[in-house]
Write the structure tokens for this entry.
Amino acid sequence: MSENTSRREGGLGGVGSAQPDVVSGVWTCCHNIDPLAEGCVFGPHCDAELQCARCGGWVPLAKWSAERCVAHPGRAERSRWGGALWSCCGAAGLEGTRWAYRGGAEWIERRVAGLSDAEWQRRRRGARPPTGCRDGRHEWQLPPGRLEPRCDACGSPWDESGTRGKAGCGVCGAAQRLCTQCWAVLPEATFLRGGCRFHPGSFCESRTIRFATKQRSGGALVRIGTADADVKCSE
Ligand SMILES: [Zn+2]
Ligand SMILES: [Zn+2]
Ligand SMILES: [Zn+2]
Ligand SMILES: [Zn+2]
Ligand SMILES: [Zn+2]
């Protein structure tokens, strides 16, 4: 999907743009402008992959440490001509970065294919593979507004062993699982029942968007598993 900054979107600007109908910050998946908005994808909980905060890509845990992360460490800023310029290296454009618009339906296709985002983008016709001026390791971080996950049974900060989806709480041993989509720690049975809501995209805080767009995109919920019975939380 190509970036179309000329049509409705105000381009990038952040604090500088003072027009009353332009707000700053938008989810790249659903165009929602509220960083704390409920997720736009609904489906099973999952702990088999993580989203990287640097490149914005989703990566199965089995590929997490082996795959190189290509990304811009800086922020995209509005150029004098209305496009996007990266503060780190001066490169132009959002395609192939964590701030490119990509909808929930595409995210589900990628999950079904069992690929990391980078693999998916490389394989997909017309998609730009991840771009950036720095090549490093994927790094995860909690989505906006999420508190540090804690065991639902004993209240301890969640132990990393839980992110592997095997053991329960590393402190009290309760059979709990951390969902790496919605970041809830849930008893095993609740986890398996599903009911996860999350954003597959990134919250791009320096992107401005016209208010009209917010009204238009009230947020159609994308459901995992209605069209493809095969969507599983695994590699
Ligand atoms: Zn979840
Ligand atoms: Zn850069
Ligand atoms: Zn990454
Ligand atoms: Zn515990
Ligand atoms: Zn979203």
Remarks:
- Helices lie at 61-64, 104-113, 117-123, 188-193, 211-216.
